[in-house]
Amino acid sequence: MKGFYSFYQSDFEKVQQLVAQIPWGHNILIYSKSNSIDEALFYLSETIENNWSRSILDM
Question: How many domains in the chain?
Answer without folding.
Answer: 1
